[in-house]
Amino acid sequence: KEILEKYRDLFTLQWEGVIGNMHVPSQAEWEQLLTNCSAFLFYGMERFLSHILLNRLVAMNIPECHLMIILDLVRSKQSYQRITNSDIHKSCLHIAIERPTETAMLLSLTGVRSVIANQWYTTLQENAERLEILSENLLSTGRTTGQTVHILQK
């Protein structure tokens, strides 16, 4: 919320979505947000694709999404319990497809042009720092995604 306030005048007035713990988005809400965006930010717990029905995602067409930022792979006791209960009903292949590289490939096949994502588990604090760096460089400074990712790697 702090970052949205800080960058409100730049682009965030046009942003829509679910913030905080307002509610858990339905599959229809996920699809509506993904298909009607030019950029998409996911900042949440566990694997991004664990929140969306995989068979629905692969059938989607998202060519208008120029950039998807996925700040996921954060774990808490509650999120670990949720993901464990969810994974019991999935095949090993399905779980493997939810990994970061596979997620980026699937999103690319649906039409997303650029994906910035975590590669391994992290903390909420580290993701907050990444989001601040991304916002500062993409929104305030106007750097390209490549330049911004290079700064993140340092």
Automatic annotation (TrEMBL):
GO terms for biological process: axoneme assembly; cilium movement involved in cell motility. InterPro entries: CFAP46. Transmembrane segments: none annotated. It comes from the Eukaryota. PANTHER family: CILIA- AND FLAGELLA-ASSOCIATED PROTEIN 46. This is CFA46 protein. It comes from Sula dactylatra (Masked booby).
